[in-house]
Amino acid sequence: MSILRMLAIEAGLRRASALSPPANKVPQIQRRQLHIAKKDVAGKPSSSSGGKKAKKKWSAKKVKDKANNLVMLDKPTYDRLFKEVPTYKLISQSVLVDRLKLNGSLARIAIRELEAQGLIKPISRHHAQVIYTRATGDEKKASADEE
């Protein structure tokens, strides 16, 4: 017997866990096999109970294609600008970007040029969005009558 055990017995301290061997000690190999068997039973859900939910998978977000807008006017776009745009009912920077595939700054310059030539007239002037419409023949006749 160890000295510690003898001292504990003399003092009347007898802890079952520390000093005496467990009454129903199962060999380590058997405990391991029982543990594995319990895992298998717990891992397979029965038909009556629901199983674990599948982990949520993150879906890839759709990437918007980069707009390949013109930075400088080419000849066909320049011709379309002066032929088609004055016939639009609503003319703004965003309309030119959508229809003619121009860069935003190029669309602003084109609108200023059309206004300078008198092909379009302003409806609303705001620092963020300037809206124009086509110049009808009525304004041209009225300005000619005044002179």
Key terms:
rod-shaped, 2 strands, two-stranded antiparallel sheet, 45% helix, 147 residues
Please give the structural blueprint.
Blueprint lengths: L2 H9 L16 H16 L31 H10 L8 H8 L3 H13 L3 E5 L6 E4 L2 H10 L1
Antiparallel strand pairs: 1-2
Helix pairs in contact: 4-5
Tell me briefly what this model is.
The chain has 147 residues and is mainly alpha-helical.
Task: Tell me about this structure.
There is one protein chain. The chain is mostly helical and 147 residues long. Helix content is 45%, strand content 6%. The protein contains six helices and two strands, in the order αααααββα. A two-stranded antiparallel ribbon has the order 1-2. Helix 4 (93-100) crosses helix 5. The protein is rod-shaped, with a radius of gyration of 43 Å. The mean pLDDT is 78.
Mean pLDDT: 78
Report on the biggest sheet.
2 strands, antiparallel
The helicity comes to 40-55%
Low-confidence parts, pLDDT < 50 over ≥5 residues? Answer: none
Query: How many β-strand runs?
Result: 2
Q: In angstroms, what separates the terminal alpha carbons?
A: 129 Å
Structural class, judged by helices and strands? mainly alpha
Principal-axis shape equals rod-shaped
Helix count equals 6
- Rg (CA only): 43 Å
Order of neighbouring strands in the sheet with most strands: 1-2
Q: Tell me the strand percentage band.
A: 5-15%
Question: H/E order of the elements?
Answer: HHHHHEEH
